[in-house]
Amino acid sequence: MIRALGRRALSLLLALIAASVVIFVMLQAVPGDPAAFMLGMNASEDAVAALRAELGLEGPLVVRYLAWISGMLGGDFGTSYTYRVPVAELVSERIVVSAPLAVMALVLSTVIAIPVGLIAAARRGGVADWGIMGGTQLGIAVPNFWFAMILVLVFAVKLRWVSAGGFPGWDAGLWPGVRALLLPAIALALPQASILARVLRSALLDTLDQDYIRTARAKGLSRRATVVRHALRNAMIPVLTILGLQFSFLLAGAIIIENVFFLPGLGRLIFQGITQRDLIVVQSVTMLLVFAVILVTFLVDLAYTFADPRLRRR
Amino acid sequence: MRVSLVIGAMLSAVFVSLAAVSLLWLPYDITVLDIAGRLHPPSASHWLGTDHFGRDMVAMLMAGARTSIAVALVAVGIGIVFGVPLGLVAAAYRGTWLDEAIMRGNDLVFAFPSLVIAILITAVFGASAVNAILAIGIFNIPVFARVARGGALPLWTLDYILAARVAGKGRARISAEHILPNIANLLIVQGTIQFSLGILAEAALSYVGLGAQPPMASWGRMLADAQTMIYTEPQLAILPGMAIVLMVLGLNLMGDGLRDALDPRLRKAGM
Amino acid sequence: MSALAPCPSLLAIDGLSVAIQGTDLLREVSFDIAPGEVMGLVGESGSGKSLTALAIMGLLPDSSDMRGAVRLEGADLTVLPERALCEMRGRDIGMIFQEPMTALNPVHTIGAQVAETVRLHRRASRAEARAIARDRLDRVGLSHIGLDRYPHELSGGQRQRVCIALAIALRPKLLIADEPTTALDVTTQTQILDLLRDLVRDEGMALLLITHDLGVVAGMADRVAVMKSGQIVESDTTEALFRTMRHPYTRALLAASRPAARVAPSTVGAPVLEAHDVARHYGATRAVDGVSFTLHAGESLGLVGESGCGKSTLTRVLLGLEPADAGRVSLLGTPVGPEMPTAARAAQQVVFQDPYGSFNPRWRVADLVAEPFHLTGRPADAEAKVIAALEAVGLAAGDARKYPHAFSGGQRQRIAIARALITRPKVLILDEAVSALDVRVRAQVLDVLSDLQKRLGLSYVFISHDLSVVRAITDRVMVMQSGRIVEEGVTNEVFFNPQAAYTAALINAAPVIPEAWLDGHVGWSWA
């Protein structure tokens, strides 16, 4: 089991290295001189040369790549041209908004999806099942950023229960911070919860067709006990896969939804980076996002081996 | 569940035909701005009113449908054209270095959320509808490769594949003659799902300014423009959003219906 | 349960009828089981025997419509509420199923699964339940297996023992066993049947044994009921039933299940397929380890062995789909292997076991049968040849236009034979070709095969785990164990006087009907 996980960790490490090469090469492939590109058409040659030196654009590609990677490993993400501050500093200011938002949304969607999926599977073909299937079908079709706008319209503009956007900062206390993230988290969570609930339902129904469910019923377990004791844990295996994939969607969704609520998160940072041609910010932040996705993939693999004994000792 | 197939197909057909009509004819020219006629409420001449530049909302929505469908369709095409052969090859050479290389390549692309791909592409080449297609299409490749490989692997263990090998057929020929027709159902269903995800992704990319650029109309851009006016003109945000929801809902219902209709296994109820 | 209605029978089924979505699947089924009695329920697939078991347990699908009564010690189970049925299941009636590989929950330990039955019906602490589980697993012969093992770590036979342990954990009055040994090898089957027989004797349980195999009921059951199309056609004490054979269906079943030994060994022709010291390894596993034989023209050679003995690997090597790691195979003098010329492959074709996985469901029969023309190039009269091949196996010309799903299992095997014959091969490899078929259909397909051999001078390599079939169709037989041929000889001699201990064990393990019971049924041979 440890060896299998070690192999998996190694393959993910390779993916990480490959991803960093892809990101690096792509941004080096920006047509023309990145420094000139960043400064715009009218920059003087001296300014361009100075920027090139500052960005570490001199020297062979391999050396520059290694410099970037070793810097990232040591926490040095480079220096933003626009803000003239270390990118690491910008990231650490912004991540305290984006990460809690993604985690809140993930927790919320799981907490909603599991009971809903269970009810739908238990009442297969019944009114509750039809209602849930219809509702989740709608939930999947709703773009989360539009749903966020509707939430703002209803809860901030019409009902005035919460503010329409902005973030007071965690210094203002835990509750004001959480409150500011509540609507965005709901907007992110509901579409994901719809997907998760549907996956859980179909996984449960597949499991309920298995022979060992018949064995459990022949032992004298009631339908409900069979679902809880025998079907649920087996059905969690496909659900885990989706949960892992969802993290990547939630991260992307969070980046977009920050725009709706004017939240100062990684998303705003990266879009500013693009419009202001602050490529070092784009490069480092995308690398960070990819790292987060790969890390979650590994955690999901870890969870697999706990859920399914067949994956141990291999 | 034939109901969902019918409703889904009808909803999808409405939007596809609106997009098709928009290629030849639009009720108003959306490249002409009419500041005087801005923010008209719905009327006989403008059924859904006009936007902040005085453009007719019906025309904008029709042109937006065209952009959405074109982007999503081409992106699905990219996914199928590159992904399905990769998946078939991986399955045919299961367990070899070739399979391993293809699957690790898939993992690599999956590590980039499609938005991150889009960010990278636009950072390098600038924002445009074509780059949105590329970003969504690249993400579709591993999806189709995985579905094709997953569908093909169990087929490779069946006796008719062995019989075809005894009849002297090679892996490529078997993949084309025996495997592909039998995973076509899976690919059609996945195609509708990716189509609807493509519509959502296009809307999101355009919304954050990484997709279609003006004057090209796009539902996502309409939402971005409407956001600042949500207090005073909420209908400008509601209408394109509804269009997205209905289109995606239609495609998803159709996908579900197709899966049920194409699945030969008739599941029995009870346990 | 009820002291008011004393009843000699433990279980009384009275006029049980079941319909699912308007289709009558069981019609007026009635039989009794006395305490401690073994009742055999015999029938072909689709006869309704498994449905009868599910009806007794109250586990029919929701959409089914049931009439009649199922009385356990006088109390009608069909009128009990679900809660009472849950209490009854596992405590009064235990059940085991055909497929041990999937009957256990993969994410729970075997100890937990056995203990669950105990804790469900009885106030028992975790430790007590574990102790009972240990005792029951010991009882079924798994004393060397820990409670904390998972199902995937056990063999098929061991898993079936776990299933039995959890079914008998509370010493139920009745055990229902639905084809409990069909998925197992013949030697494992004997062990499981012995275990069931001992349990019935020691624990005083009654047993309802559902099977398609007349040999199994002959050795196990006190009484037998024969089922056909949802009805019981004949029922009697076991010996009386076999001795009298009143119903023609019973006679047909018996005749088909005991194909006559091959009478006239054909004259030996020139060698067509030769294997010299063939070996095939997967890593450290020697799947095939030094196999040599010669197949002559017009000859039938049997290959017998249990699952995992290497016969599937040997088949793929003989077909030239996998290379031999050592030794060589030659077909009509041409070396066989993945690189052999396609035209040479046409001299040898194959028929597989699974009639449902053998055909691409999207192709018409005409195209399926014509597929091996890929080896020779499609002749101008391909269509006529396809029709001739179909007619040779007893199908009609019109069948060429149909898709495979329109055919039954037996008809599909005929199509598979037609496909194998289309290139006029000299050698046919029959890989468990009749194993998935019901006995009567099997007899018909075997008829087709021996007729074709006579007419076309074919040579067969007949691979099977089923000794009675091998005995009926082969001239010589090889017995394979762990990749090696442990015995080879003329079929009749090997069967009457096996030399290797393993061969003897295999032959003794096969369930048989005592010959004395069958005196007077001379007309039963299929040949």
TrEMBL record, chain A:
Chief localization: membrane
Membrane topology: Multi-pass membrane protein
TM annotation in the entry: 95-120, 141-161, 239-261, 281-304
A molecular function GO annotation: dipeptide transmembrane transporter activity
Domain of life: Bacteria
Domain ABC transmembrane type-1 stretches: 95-300
Keywords: Cell membrane, Membrane, Transmembrane, Transmembrane helix, Transport
A cellular-component GO term for this protein: plasma membrane
Subcellular location: Cell membrane
Family designation: Belongs to the binding-protein-dependent transport system permease family.
PANTHER family: DIPEPTIDE TRANSPORT SYSTEM PERMEASE PROTEIN DPPB-RELATED
Name the UniProt record assigns to this protein: Glutathione transport system permease protein GsiC
Gene name for this UniProt entry: gsiC_2
UniProtKB/TrEMBL annotation, chain B:
Compartments where found: Cell membrane
Main location class: membrane
Entry's Gene Ontology BP terms: transmembrane transport
Domain of life: Bacteria
Transmembrane segments: 69-93, 114-141, 237-258
Membrane disposition: Multi-pass membrane protein
Ranges for domain ABC transmembrane type-1: 65-255
Keywords: Cell membrane, Membrane, Transmembrane, Transmembrane helix, Transport
One term under GO cellular component: plasma membrane
InterPro entries in UniProt: BP-dependent_transpt_permease, MetI-like, MetI-like_sf
Pfam families: BPD_transp_1 (PF00528)
Family: Belongs to the binding-protein-dependent transport system permease family.
The protein, known as: Glutathione transport system permease protein GsiD
Source taxonomy: Bacteria, Pseudomonadati, Pseudomonadota, Alphaproteobacteria, Rhodobacterales
Automatic annotation (TrEMBL), chain C:
Record-linked SMART domains: AAA
Keywords, sorted A to Z: ATP-binding, Hydrolase, Nucleotide-binding, Transport
Pfam family, one: ABC_tran
Enzyme Commission no: 3.6.3.-
Subcellular location: Cell inner membrane
Domain ABC transporter stretches: 11-254, 273-507
Topology with respect to the bilayer: Peripheral membrane protein
Lineage: superkingdom: Bacteria
Molecular function in Gene Ontology: ATP binding; ATP hydrolysis activity
Record carries keyword Membrane: no
Family, per entry: Belongs to the ABC transporter superfamily.
Name this polypeptide is given: Glutathione import ATP-binding protein GsiA
The encoding gene: gsiA_4
